[in-house]
Amino acid sequence: MTTKFGIVIFPSKKLQDLANSYRKRYDPHYALIPPHLTLKAFSAEDEQMKAVSETLHNIAAETNPFQLSIRKVSSFQPVNNVIYLKVNPTEELNLLHEKVNDNIIGDKPEYAFVPHITIGQKLSNDEHSDVFGSLKMDRVEHEEIVDRFHLLYQLENGSWSVYETFRLGKE
Fold it and tell me: 97 catalytic, yes or no?
């Protein structure tokens, strides 16, 4: 059976609380998954997951914990009406994204990697301009250390659950 999987970074509770303060109003996926930064989304058969898990352990072992910093709210418009917390791209984060996408089954990403945490989506054009207009004035300053990432799977009701967690650096 094919299942949808995602490889994500969950930020600290402090940042999740900030993101959720917007998401509960502007993101219809609010109840399905906590705020996250997606490294890869893919579908796989259950029997492929042992190999995926081993590969992710190896990637995690050779990736050191790194700084995650957010300075502003941004948007993907005109491509789509997604509003997000913009994560400053760092060499470590880009390398982790690259390793995950080069070594895990599934299609290459549809878009260039723009590290972000979605706080609003599926908004009409008017809603998007109103919400983004006021949010881009907000000063967001957040820094934290990322020391793990997670492999999630999607349940039948559309919500996501952690399949496995991978700690960065040598165990």
Answer: no
